[in-house]
Amino acid sequence: MQASEVKLQHIIEGTKQYIVPLFQRAYSWSKQEWEILWEDILDLCEKENPTPHFMGSIVTMQTTSVPESVNKYLLIDGQQRLTTVFILLAALRDKAKNSGDGELAKEINDTFLVNPFKKDTDYYKLQPTQVDRQAFYCIIKDELTNDKNSILECFNFFKKKLEQNELPLSQINQIICSNLSLVSIVLNNNEDPYLVFESLNAKGRSLTQADLIRNYFFMRINTDNQQSVHGQYWQPMEVLLEDNLTEFIRHYLAKSGADIRKDEVYFQIKNSLKNGNVIAYLQDLSIFAQYYAKLLDPKREANLSIRKYLDNINLLKVQTVYPFLLNCYDDWQEKRITQENFISILQVIENFLLRRFICDVQTRGLNKIFALLYSQISKDAELASNGFLETLKLNLQDRDYPKDTEFKERLMTVKLYGGLKTSKALLILKAIEESFKHKEQISFDKLNIEHIMPQTLSEAWKEYLGEDWQITHELLLDSLGNLTLTNYNTEMSNAEFSTKQTYLKNSHLELNRYFYHQKSWHKEDIEERAEHLANCALKIWSYFGDESRQYASGNKLKGSTPQYLLIFGQAYQVKNWRDVLEVSLNTVAEKEPDKFKEIVAKFPRFLGWQKEDFRTSRQLKNGVFLNTNLSAKDIHKFCLKAIETAELSSEDWEVKTV
After folding, report:
1. Of all residues in the chain, what percent carry a pLDDT higher than 90?
2. Residue 645 backbone dihedrals phi, psi, to 5 degrees
3. Residues of 178-207 as b/e, b for ≥16 C-beta within 10 angstroms?
């Protein structure tokens, strides 16, 4: 890397061309930056002996050129200021021409703006990005255009300023060329332009790996073909995926079995394309981009049956499955598997992810699982002759796939509303409604989740729920048993149960027929409906593993006696659920104090700083009092709620029972 301070004239005169790499953003300077540059030039013009004015830095790297071509440089950094200077000089040239100073106009044009003896694209001193190129050409060739973009707005800004100004045009030209200076940094060919650009622009909008990949592709494509290839393959992908393009390329690479980190995408592309056909690679990339767009937005999928399951997986918010699904999507499109096979695969993935979410199994490691899964399943299926689908099930059942007892227990108590959890609740409630298989299915588009026991309790509700209303509210508000779907949310609000029941009786959802003959909505009623819906869920997302493993190991939490607690890698002997809760809370308070404060704030009926708030209590190590005047059932439920709030997974917190 070589750096030196140079005058602007040194940068732009001579037979040369600056190419803005395709990993750069389009021209984005606005009136604010143009005003600053113009005011700086006027200030210099007013000085008797103007000193050099520093504009910033420009980073370039010389590229390989054919002998008859001009010297070409990648403009790694500084494209905004250099493009602006070229536009200003073009406006100055036009002003000189219109003022009768043809000599100055020709000098500016032939010395600074173009390579007068070169043809085609070599004629221009600057090659902006694709989106700006045509507008820039029109300005340089002094051709009128009605197009609108930042390049033309900049030209019109300086054109207007020059028309309003009475300073000699030759003086302005002299100031621009001789008094504006830059630090010119020239990279060696073995230096990484992406890393340099990113470090220089750390405070600006981050450069994406996709930006650099685009440049890498097109530096390897003949200049005669760049425009057509860009328009046929790359640009449609940019339009289709927008900010998701880099992540798509990462998942595309991962579908071959590699676990690619986000900062490794560019280097992986380079390695995979060392001796490859760039255009063929782009063709394949563009095909898979279509699949990826459908994974992100299932409405793009015309097949309604496939769309339904893509929607479900989309609601689970686990993009680590995408490398695996890209392969399966391609198998379906290329007719290597049937539609029924593809749907079955999607159902297994949905089942696997949903059960793990409900049982709070950590997602860490899923990226490695799903990157390797397709190639592993394909190989195992071929060796064992079990078929792809059956081999998939056998493989996933060994990946912390929850069994029925744990799934049902957690489904009845887990928080299913708020943040990302809400989308999972929608998935579960919609699936249960669809499981009744009415021939006239209703549209879910306008339906929302409704809490039967409301989020904000009125005095009437508190009285209705009884003395322990606060415990009931804290434990069961966002649980499955208290949630349903309706379009009467505004009308129902926090109305009494009898009022809500009237609306629910008018519902066309089978899900709400449950309330037709419901006489009350107390704690026991919510728990009873939770078990009813959990049994429905067990039929929809039935255990797909080897049935002999269903009860071979694992813990049935409800009605069991705890023996050991494993938390943060340490084992504790316990006698009951009260011990489990006390040890868990003491450990969370020590290792995750912020999470502990969140538990205290969220469950004031269970934890507090004042002993007199509770009839009987135990004091934790940090001084907080734990309410012990609770049934074993409620303590067990609160234990699960506390761990859920602390965001501990099954790897961080596990109870061994007898």
Report:
1. 46
2. -65, -35
3. ebbbbebbbbeeeeebbebbbebeeeeeeb
User: Given the structure tokens 């107390």, which residue do they identify?
Assistant: 522
Question: With bands split at pLDDT 50, 70 and 90, how would you rate the model's confidence at 190?
Answer: low
In the chain, what are the domain boundaries? 2-200, 209-401, 407-549, 562-657
Using CA atoms, how far apart are residues 535 and 569, in angstroms rounded to an integer? 33
Q: What is the CA radius of gyration of the chain?
A: 33
Is there a contact between 397 and 549 (Cβ–Cβ < 8 Å)? yes
Complete DSSP assignment for 182-227: EEEEEE-TTS-HHHHHHHHTTTSSPPPHHHHHHHHHHHTS-HHHHH
Largest Cα–Cα separation, the chain: 99
Parallel/antiparallel/unpaired status of strands 53-62 and 180-187: parallel
From the options 1.20.272, 1.20.1380, 3.40.50, 1.10.1760, give the CATH code of 562-657.
1.20.1380
CA distance 441 to 423: 20
Give the per-residue pLDDT at 385.
55
How far apart, in whole angstroms, are the C-alpha atoms of residue 239 and residue 226?
Answer: 18
| Predicted local confidence at residue 66, as pLDDT | 56
Beta pairing, strands 71-77 & 16-19: parallel
Q: Which two structure tokens, joined as six digits, stand for 164?
A: 């309003």
